[in-house]
C-alpha cells in the first residue's frame, strides 16, 4: 500500500547478507533490487555491490555491517545455506561463510535479542528449505520478497516498526455481581 511518508529520528539500518548464488538465476540482481527499494523508502540499507569497486578489507567490512545493522536480511538460497552452515568447499564463498559465522556467533551470544535482528528473506527461485539452520526455528518466520507486494509491505513494516495492527486501549476490569 502507498502510505504517507513520515520522518523518523534515525532511519533504520539494514545489511543485506546473501551468497552470489548462480544456481538461482537473477538472485544477485534481486538482492540489489531489495537493497535499492529499501533505500528509496528511507531505510539505510547496505549491500556489498555498492562498495565492491573499493579496496575493502572484506572481513572487517562484513563484521561492521552485521554489528551496526538494526536488522540483517538473510537472503536464503541453496549456496547461502551451504556456506552459512560451513559445508562444501571452504575455499569458495568466503563472504557468505564469514557472514554465516558472524550470524551464528551473534545468535549464540544473545539468544534473547538476536533472533529479532536476523530476518530470513526468500527471493524468487528460493524456498524455505534454503534458510540456514542457525536461523531456525526463527527462520520459519520469513518474508517472500517481491517489490510492491503485501509481503514487501510486511517486511518494510517490521523494519520500520509499523505494525499492521495495534491492540485497542485497555478498558476497565468488569466487576460481575
Throw out a few tags for this protein.
177 residues; alpha/beta; five-stranded parallel β-sheet; 5 strands; 12% strand
* Major sheet description: 5 strands, parallel
Q: Which structural class matches the secondary elements?
A: alpha/beta
Strand content: 5-15%
Assembly state here? single chain
Number of beta-strand segments: 5
The Cα radius of gyration reads: 18 Å
- Kindly report the average pLDDT value: 88
Low-confidence stretches: none
**End-to-end distance:** 47 Å
Count of discrete alpha- or pi-helical segments spanning 4 or more residues: 6
Shape: globular
Write out the strand line-up for the largest beta sheet, numbering strands in chain order.
Answer: 2-1-3-4-5
Fraction of residues in helices? Answer: 25-40%
How would you portray this structure in words?
The protein has 6 helices and 5 strands. It is α/β, with parallel strands linked by helices and 177 residues long. The termini are far apart. α2 runs parallel beside α4. The radius of gyration is 18 Å and the shape is globular.
Amino acid at each position: 500500500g502507498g502510505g504517507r511518508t513520515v520522518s523518523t529520528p534515525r532511519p533504520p539500518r539494514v545489511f543485506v547478507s546473501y551468497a552470489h548464488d548462480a544456481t538461482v538465476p537473477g538472485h544477485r540482481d534481486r538482492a540489489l533490487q531489495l537493497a535499492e527499494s529499501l533505500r528509496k523508502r528511507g531505510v539505510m540499507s547496505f549491500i556489498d555491490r555498492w562498495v565492491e569497486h573499493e579496496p575493502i578489507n572484506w572481513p572487517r567490512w562484513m563484521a561492521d555491517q552485521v554489528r551496526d545493522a538494526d536488522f540483517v536480511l538473510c537472503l536464503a538460497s541453496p549456496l547461502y545455506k551451504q556456506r552459512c552452515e560451513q559445508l562444501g568447499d571452504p575455499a569458495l564463498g568466503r563472504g557468505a561463510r564469514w557472514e554465516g559465522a558472524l550470524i551464528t556467533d551473534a545468535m549464540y551470544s544473545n539468544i534473547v535479542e538476536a533472533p529479532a535482528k536476523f530476518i530470513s528473506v526468500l527471493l524468487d527461485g528460493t524456498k524455505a528449505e534454503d534458510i540456514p539452520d542457525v536461523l531456525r526455528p526463527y527462520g520459519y518466520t520469513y518474508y517472500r520478497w517481491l517489490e510492491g507486494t503485501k509481503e514487501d509491505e510486511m517486511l518494510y513494516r517490521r523494519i520500520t516498526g509499523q505494525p499492521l495492527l495495534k491492540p485497542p486501549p485497555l478498558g476497565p476490569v468488569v466487576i460481575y455481581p
